[in-house]
Write a structure and sequence with these properties.
Radius of gyration: 21 Å
Helix content: 25-40%
Largest sheet: 7 strands, mixed
CATH topology of the largest domain: Rossmann fold
Number of helices: 9
CATH class of the largest domain: Alpha Beta
Shape: elongated
Number of strands: 11
């Protein structure tokens, strides 16, 4: 084990002590939070009739697996509650809302603190530190990914660089598999200028955009200072991460998010690049059969 840590690119691999919980400690915490969640949603219109027919109590939830006692909630269910029928706090406690795919997610100030911590865990695990500069190129729009990453950067204490939002035009020429036109080139030029001028250490963006700016900078014989690249674990991100690492002197780190939850904080890689770590102290994950919607072993 000592030899392994000698080879790691940086020390202090975790941001929050919660990341070091034992499996037993984590299960105890998940069970407690499951009970708390049940109490919060019991009177929501979406679940009220279920609990009237199934008067479940705290003692009915003895382990995380008991979540299967609850009805499965789909995106269609959430969309039907638009805009706020699924809120469990009064309106004056809402600090931010974000919308995507027909449903709205609301956050209290406490939720935003959790979001910042979860994003910081991922960013810290891939090497972002307080003495670095990071650019977030995702649009600060409705979905909330950019806000989540920005809050994580702030939480760590790193400096953020004003970004030119990444764009993917519809009719354009090809640059190494990335569609681009005059406007896109201008955006990429501005991004490259900012990264070079401020000697940026990292960038958070879609993999296609990262490949485009790296390719353009190489074509112009400009040396980008970035060494860490944080991209969403979409099919494209997964497909491009190793080609990018092969052709350019950067490391590409994957993270996974969902607009209904906390942005970039659900799961992320560490320096081993051997799968994404789920933040199990905050989320309870299930493997569900796509047709029956029943939990799998």
């Amino acid at each position: 084990m000592a030899e392994l840590f000698d080879r790691l690119p940086f020390e202090n691999l975790y941001w929050n002590q919660a990341e070091t919980l034992t499996q037993e400690e984590c299960r105890t915490l998940q069970t407690r939070q499951l009970r708390r969640t049940v109490e919060r949603v019991r009177e929501l219109p979406l679940y009220r009739s279920f609990f009237e027919e199934n008067p479940l109590q705290d003692e009915d939830f003895q382990a995380p697996e008991d979540v299967r006692r609850l009805p499965f909630t789909t995106l269609t269910d959430l969309r039907a509650q638009f805009p706020n029928a699924h809120w469990t706090v009064p309106r004056h406690e809402i600090a931010r809302v974000q919308t995507q795919d027909g449903f709205l997610t609301a956050f209290t100030r406490h939720d935003l603190q959790i979001q910042a911590d979860l994003s910081a865990r991922y960013l810290y695990a891939v090497g972002i530190r307080s003495n670095q500069m990071v650019q977030v190129s995702h649009a600060f729009g409705r979905a909330g990914l950019a806000f989540a990453l920005q809050s994580g950067i702030d939480c760590i204490g790193a400096a953020s660089i004003p970004a030119v939002n990444q764009i993917v035009p519809t009719n354009s020429a090809m640059i190494t598999g990335y569609r681009t036109g005059q406007t896109a080139n201008e955006k990429m030029e501005e991004t490259i200028d900012a990264l070079c001028a401020l000697n940026a250490d990292a960038i958070c963006a879609d993999a296609e955009f990262v490949l485009a700016i790296l390719t353009l900078a190489q074509k112009q014989e400009r040396n980008l200072p970035i060494r860490n690249v944080c991209v969403p674990a979409t099919s494209t991100g997964i497909a491009l991460r190793y080609p990018i690492q092969k052709d350019f002197p950067v490391k590409v780190w994957l993270h996974w998010e969902h607009p209904a939850f906390f942005g970039a904080g659900l799961a992320g890689e560490c320096c081993r690049q051997d799968g994404l770590h789920i933040q199990e102290d905050r989320f309870l994950f299930e493997c569900i059969h796509p047709e029956t919607l029943q939990p799998l072993p």
